[in-house]
Amino acid sequence: MGAEIVIQTENLTKVYKRLFKAGKKALDNLTISVPKGAVYGFLGPNGAGKTTTIKILMDLIKSTGGTAYVLGKPSYDVEIKERIGFLPDSPAFSPQLTAYEFLNICGKLLKIPSAERGPRIEMVLETVKMAPHMREKIGSFSRGMLQRIGVAQAILNQPDLLILDEPLLGLDPYGRQEFKQIILTQQARGASVFFSSHILSDVEEICDHVAILNKGKLLCAGRLNKLLGASGFTAIIPPNNDEVLKELITMAAKTSRKEDGAWILTFPADDEIRGKVDAVVSKSSDKINVTAAYEKLEDFFFRTLKEDNKQ
Ligand SMILES: Nc1ncnc2c1ncn2[C@@H]1O[C@H](COP(=O)(O)OP(=O)(O)OP(=O)(O)O)[C@@H](O)[C@H]1O
Ligand SMILES: [Mg+2]
Predict the structure, then answer these.
(1) 14, 63 in Cβ contact below 8 A?
(2) Mean per-residue pLDDT, 89-114
(3) How far is the CA of 54 from the centre of ligand 2 (A)?
């Protein structure tokens, strides 16, 4: 049996009805699985269908086809709700409430016993660095401060699963750093995290899985190191080993030179080339490291979308 899955969609499809126009297909047969304990980045350009998917997972809108399971139950099951922490894409908070009052209401709705509620609220406000502002009105908060309050309410119930729609939006570099720490702490606690984002460098840092969506269709999904490693492999040729360099350089797709004079040759993911490189390397008296080449997530993202948009 495979690992436990916390989100499973199968052929999930959403067509929005529009007045006097054909329906808009926002999601087209999306099939993804999020394993328990994952930090899963949900990526795609504007309009790709990320928020639509998240809304279906949270049962805020209905799909027009396919299935969505969350924590092992259909996404409309009410029992799973209190095990999920959710940050919507444009959270609407009551501006006249203080941060503390707002979280107190959230805590009551989540049925956190009153004795536990106060300390728990203070703890999450501390976590999102908003404790000094707990008695201030939400209406006076900046975009980033609101986002922090949104994250605070999402983690208030120590949920098994966090579903966050663009949690990094509006955060300053400190906020982004803190958010990454929060997510890793949640993961260490045993929670699974599924979030959409456009900030690929942050996604690359904390996510172990990603999916890329374009125009409602899934382009790829899986373990990040597998997806990024698919680009090939590199060999580092020590300085002055011209013999090996000459043999390998013609097969390389990319070459660069290090300060000490060593060469980094990057080869495409091709078994035949790998075999030839291994043969040359094994004959050499120098130690030559051959390792998987990891593409940057940003390069992988643009390459994947470019290939899709060509079709
Ligand atoms: N209520 C709606 N009625 C009609 N079309 C909609 C509706 N909501 C979303 N869409 C369309 O569905 C598509 C997917 O939108 P969605 O909000 O899911 O994208 P997204 O990936 O979250 O984008 P972003 O990165 O901008 O947040 C878009 O083409 C959008 O115009
Ligand atoms: Mg969105």
Answers:
(1) yes
(2) 93
(3) 9
Same-domain status, 203 and 268: no
Residue nearest to atom 4 of ligand 1 (CA): 16
Burial 295-306 (b: 16+ CB within 10 A, else e): bebeebbeebbe
Task: Identify the CATH number of the domain in which residue 261 sits.
Answer: 3.30.70
Q: Give the residue from 223, 253, 268 where a domain finishes.
A: 223
Residue 53 CA to residue 166 CA, distance in Å, equals 13
Residue whose CA is at the smallest distance from ligand 1 atom 17 = 51
Name which of 152, 165, 210, 194 is nearest 50 in CA terms: 165
Rounded to a whole number of angstroms, the CA Rg of the chain reads: 24
The whole model's pTM is what?
Answer: 0.88
Ligand 1 contact via 232 beta carbon (within 6 Å):
no
Q: Burial code of 51-82, b = ≥16 C-beta within 10 A, e = fewer?
A: bbbbbbbbbeeebbebebbbbeeebeeeebbe
For 220-256, write each residue's pLDDT tens digit: 999 998 899 867 899 999 998 899 999 999 999 889 9
Residues 182 and 46 in one domain: yes
What is the span of the domain harbouring residue 277? 232-293
| φ/ψ (deg, to 5) at 243 | -65, -50
Judge whether 216 and 30 are in contact, CB under 8 Å: yes
* CA pair distance 82, 307, nearest whole angstrom: 41
Question: Rounded to the nearest whole angstrom, what is the distance from the C-alpha of residue 229 to the centroid of ligand 1?
Answer: 31
Entry field: residues in the chain: 311
Specify the higher pLDDT residue, 25 or 2: 25
Q: What is the per-residue pLDDT for 2? A: 58
